[in-house]
Amino acid sequence: MSDSTLTYSQPGAEEWQHTLSEFQQRATQWLHGLEHHPVATLNATLPQSPLAAQGAGSEITIKKVHSELVPQMSASRGPRYWGFVTGGATPVATYADWLVALLDQNVSKDGDSIASMVERQAIQWLVELFNLPASFTGLCTTGATASNFLAAVTARQFAGTQQGIDVAKQGMAGLDIEIFSACPHASMIKTLGLAGFGQNNITQVKTSKDSEAMSPQDLAIKLKQSTAKSKIVISSAATVTGTSFDDLQQISALCLQHRAWLHVDAAFGIFARLLPDMEQNTAGIEQADSITLDGHKWLNVPYDCGMFLTRHQSLLKDSCHVAAPYLVQSGSEPDFMSLGMENSRRFRALPVWMTLHAYGKSGIRSWVEKNCRQAQLLAQFIAASTQWKLVYPCNLNVVLFRPLDDEVDCDSVLRHINARGKVFFSPGKWQGQAIIRAAFSNWQTEDSDVAIAIKELQTMAADL
């Protein structure tokens, strides 16, 4: 292959051999070096430059990316990235994502490929994975934020049917709704604003003592006091900081009594259903009207991937469908473009489908069990430490801690730990106090990684 071909600034068939060969080599280098790559790069820089009139060509561009950009990326797919709740794409899921780019399918309508069938089967398998009723259907989304948005607009449509208003077509004027929640995720608050309810338009339900879980007793009082024609209850399984699980059995019974829509944000907590000793934490979720979950968390598929499940597909379709001559439904099942926000949709279901097919329920359960055990290892070290304080018991996969001395600036300590590049934690708040938060959700994490993190905390403690 000539140099002129490699630097040609227009795409051409000649590029494929070079780019595919180059990618295999670079991917192998990245994966083999991941253990030694800084877990986070806190001071990344990108020099500003104008767009060139003449393109540099694929070879020069690829070299530039790997010399200047890749070294400044985080090792977020690696075993010691414990910020937020972050999975690390498995080999099969990574292959699937490469295949998604290669095939470049637009999963909006049936009729031209098998892709929509794959997505429906992936959703069906997820319903089976979590032992949910077969009445749940859904779709893949970009993540929990998009799923929570679909929950908001579907619940909005439900409220409209109660009041004789087709909200999707007529708007929200005259709609009388009250929303109840105790500790909603930030993405849920964001989507309430996007859906027209307003971020601040939430009736605050009390939490149970020393927990982020919703108090069913207070919810019962507030639902009884409400004069709204329609009611929406937003519940959590589990909350993002304390991993508290709402009592969904009591809450679902209250929602049924008051004809309220129940949405459960279960982005990662739903995986507790795979563990016999934790399954009871999500009892009652099968009565929810809608459920949010994430694939790029504990399912360990690549970003971005979430799922939205509902027992009311017709309301979801009423919320999202737009009639047009060129968008006529292709088959007996609703097209996915009529069930979500986007008309153009990436084939996100393929990594989900291949993950479920390759690893099965037992494989996924094994890494969930392992991560929960590893979280306990870290929690036990912190609880026994004379320099660190466990601020809340670890009851799933998240560990909350801070320096034992309350006078120490916790945020500064966190920045220092992360800057060392061995492990990455994210910040949080617990009862008004700054904390450090470690979330275990990566299939690659081993006990040796916990030992490395403990050594980092011991080193940091010497400077406190």
UniProtKB/TrEMBL annotation:
PROSITE patterns: DDC_GAD_HDC_YDC (PS00392). GO terms for molecular function: carboxy-lyase activity; pyridoxal phosphate binding; transaminase activity. One of its GO terms (cellular component) is cytoplasm. Keywords: Aminotransferase, Lyase, Pyridoxal phosphate, Transferase. Its cofactor is pyridoxal 5'-phosphate. It comes from the Bacteria. InterPro entries: Aromatic_deC, PyrdxlP-dep_de-COase, PyrdxlP-dep_Trfase, PyrdxlP-dep_Trfase_major, PyrdxlP-dep_Trfase_small, Pyridoxal-P_BS. The modification N6-(pyridoxal phosphate)lysine is found at K297. The keyword Transferase applies. GO terms for biological process: carboxylic acid metabolic process. Signal peptide: none annotated. Belongs to the group II decarboxylase family. This is Aspartate aminotransferase family protein.
